Input
Amino acid sequence: MSKKIFSGVQPTGNLHLGNYLGAIKNFVDLNNDNQNECIFCVVDLHAITVKQDKDQLTNNIRETAATFIASGIDPSKSIIFNQSKVHAHAEGSWILSCMAPMGWLNRMTQFKEKAGKDKEKASVGLYIYPILMASDILLYDATHVPVGEDQKQHLELTRDIAQKFNKDFDCEDFLRVPEPLIKKNFSRIMSLKDGLKKMSKSDPSDLSRINLTDTKDEIINKIKKAKTDSLPIPNEYQKLKDRLEAKNLLGIYSSISDQTLDKTIDEFEGKNFSDLKSQLAEVLLSKISPISDEIKKLVNDQNYLDKVLVEGANKAEEIAGKKIKEMKKIIGF
Ligand code: AMP
Ligand code: TRP
Output
């Protein structure tokens, strides 16, 4: 069956191995299946829900597009664009924010995490962030949305909003109810320093993550310093239950080498972490370094990146512009 794929990544710098294994690697596989129509969006309107430096934001938009391309997304097959270039996203977001009850938004755990203790100081944008995400997805009639596990709740909200709109305006199937595409294993890559925290761009310790722009030496050093424990690697997954850091490293190894965790455990059973770490560093260098080199090359070619983004925005505008027009007609505008 042909799928309509939509996903987004925020241009907030430091794209890391979690973004790659949780999301971008799947984008590439979906892009490579000729049956699919894929749209990958640099969600710059989402980025400004927290304060951004102007010049850095501009650079990060290009770098995120470069990361998509360097990872293997082909801009002649998939649409790559940045959200702020297509008016319908913000307009759709307003309309949907008038449909979505506050009670639904109050349940969103990402807002609670990001707003921290002082909720009063968080921007209203951060609060309604999931509604903009729903607008992104619904404007393109997306059937499938590849994301990391942390976005599952936002996808459920998107589905609820679509169903409510269709019901409120008596327009069955007008907004397509999308399916999440979340990898079953290791859809959540954890920090290299703390198995309880997810790998994140905003972690103050750079040693907690492998950035997609890290040099070979940085990758080797970070894997060397990654937290482990003193026991050897067990012979079955169950025995890793309380060994979060060990589980994470084995999971990263499985995910990046496209093999099951059982196979990885078979491979390393009884060995100690120095063996796993040296092989993990090797496989990361072979998979991540070419991407990193290509990102560095592409960010120096601003004209090319801007051309990809403009052409992508023109194609996206055609699809989303039509949908928002129909949406406004349904409402009575
Ligand atoms: P963001 O950088 O927050 O825009 O996230 C972009 C994509 O990467 C989303 O699909 C996230 O779910 C995914 N992602 C971010 N961090 C991780 C992580 N530590 N493990 C797995 N997926 C992640
Ligand atoms: N909220 C997503 C994240 O933080 C990014 C995003 C915005 C997105 N719009 C989207 C993902 C639409 C999928 C589809 O990772």
